[in-house]
Structures are given as structure tokens and as C-alpha cells.
Amino acid sequence: MIRAFRDQDKDYVIEAHGRIYKEEYQFDHTFAAYINDSVHDFVSQANREKEYIWIAEVDGNPKGMIGIARVDNDTARLRWFLVEPDARAQGLGKQLMKQAVTFSEQQQYKRIILWTHSDLFQARKLYARYGFRPVETTSKQLSGQELIEEKWELDLVE
After folding, report:
1. Cα(151)–Cα(132) distance, rounded to whole angstroms?
2. Where is the N-acetyltransferase domain (predicted)?
3. Model's pTM, two decimal places?
4. 2-155 has which CATH code?
5. Domain ranges of the chain
């Protein structure tokens, strides 16, 4: 089930990102702080008509999330996309992605951008399946690591 974000979900979004990125990619507390700040900013400042977070639940337990944040009138940013390890390969990522893209189309955004890292192989496959394409790469220090950061874009209008 995909449901609307409730303000109390912010703790889950922050905790899950910190925990999973630490376990799977050895990200440190600086990444968790970045997620904490971005989620708190969303909760306090988001235009809920143009920006949204969805929570995936299985048996009443949160198992993932995805968000859309407004960049400008034409551009949305896909954020906070994550599926719990024990819930992967069940279609939740596809459902979340479909929800975010459909919402962006309904809000008449012309494009969606996202930033990811080159080592997030499964997420990158899903982005490509939905028509996103890499448009920019940069090297970045994050969590004490040198990472290749990628900007991907999906055009929503022809």
C-alpha cells in the first residue's frame, strides 16, 4: 500500500536513510544530518499541493518512501527514494516511482530531476526503466568518501 506522508513519518524517513545508507554504503553521520535537515525543511516549508512524500507500507509497517519537491514551476525533484532491504523485489519501488511520476504529471511539471550516486545500481536501473537519463556527473566528497554523483532527468512533455 502506498499512502500519503504524515508529519510523524519524518522520523522514519530520517532513521531509515541513516541506517540503510550506513549499512549498505558506509555513509557516516554527515549523510544522516543532510537527510535530517532536508526532511525537516520539507515538513516546515513544503507546498503540499506541488510537493509530496509517499510512504510504502506492508502489513501496516513502513517499508519505503519517495518524495517530489518543487525546484521551480517547470521542474520537480525526486527525493528520499528508498525501499527497505527486506521489502525489495516485491514491486514497491515501481509503485513508488509510478506515484511520483504521475503526481508530477498532474502538477504539470515539465521535467523531473534527481541526484544519485553511481554505486546505487538497482535504483539507477529503475530510473532508466522509467525514462530518466543521466545528464551530468560530478565527483563529490560525501561521508568521507569520494563519490560520483549523477544528475538524471525525465522529460514529461514532448
Report:
1. 10
2. 1-155
3. 0.90
4. 3.40.630.30
5. 2-155
